[in-house]
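Note to self: keep these together.
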Amino acid sequence: MIPVEVALGKVLSNLPPKQMELLPLLKSLGAVLAEEIRADLPIPHFDRVLMDGYAVRAAEAGPGKELIVSGETYAGGSAATLAPGTAVRVMTGAPLPAGADAVIPQEEVELSPGGDRIKAKAAIAAEDHVARRGEDVAEGATLLKPGTILRPQEVGVIASIGRERIKCFRRPATCVTTTGDELVELNVKPKESQIRNSNAYMVIAQIANMGLPHAYVGIAKDTVESLTQKVKDGLRTDVLIVVGGSGGGARDLVHDVLKREGVDILVRGVGISPGRHFSFGRKGNLLVFVLPGNPVSAFVCFELFVRPALAATAGFDQPCRSVVPAKLRAEVERMKERQQLLPANLTGAPGRREVERVSWKGAGDLAALSRANCLMLIPPGEGVVAAGSQVETLKLDADQQFVETEGSGVFAGGALGALGAGRP
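Structure:
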């Protein structure tokens, strides 16, 4: 079995070249921008009113100075012309009348009984509540750079310059299958020795949480014929993920079937607990991941190996979860020859982080994993890692998907840390 960082290095060095595609703007959310976005017009492209109120010449307005209301202008209307000694009623977003240099908010004026004259309640200065042409963004200025993850606000920026289609890095399409005669789908009540197929839904949720397309082709029985059909279906996509069937048992047929279908197995077995029965292969530009059948093992291997591969292929500059150092709140026993990646809870502010493992009963204890907000790395060796020792953690919170790595160590100093810090 090989160390985690060696396995991850093999995965990342065997990724296919990034591809680009032209996406409709409304289908680009979550994609990574592959082109520079520039302003086609100044923003705003006309002198614009920022408050409902009255457009005036600032020098003519102020307490005790009465102005005649000569007209009104609305958003979307034509710009008026302001005559000396007058004010024009204006609405937010309206073009600023020619000759005006300020706006008095409507709540800051005194209206005459007939509403045809106003006086400002306080002093007003030129440019108050006015946005000049190009004040926000100059024509031709860069608004977004390649590598930007498109959130709703970036979609709005692109819409503001009239782009209906944009060039993005192509997101890999992923197919998931699970294997095992013991598995039944969610709508089936399990009989003795059967279990519901929670792994498929967990892994698909991990993919969906990245904003990537995915498909589920169902459960493969522990026969060559059944598994071959599922593998053939999955090999029609960009990435195939098989959950289960990766151990050394008599009915663990996944590797034999993959090899028959032309998949080159590049990683088989990793020195980690849980998750040692992880495998990775490639057929041309198609990636194949085999995750262990125990749910915590499958989850851990996805986070360590599959997530970085999918994210890097989709164009993310920082495709890994955040790696954060923290002090152990209680001692943890080591494994002699394998690294451990244990469900844990991370607390405290940067520089004062503490971590404590979640009580769990092994790699099949999915409920325990749901109580964790990080995975805690315990290096191999004799004895225990003492309370107060510094260890590395891999954050799992949804808002920590693509953030910079803190500190250094096995992960932060290796392939995972390099990607996490945005160094592809």
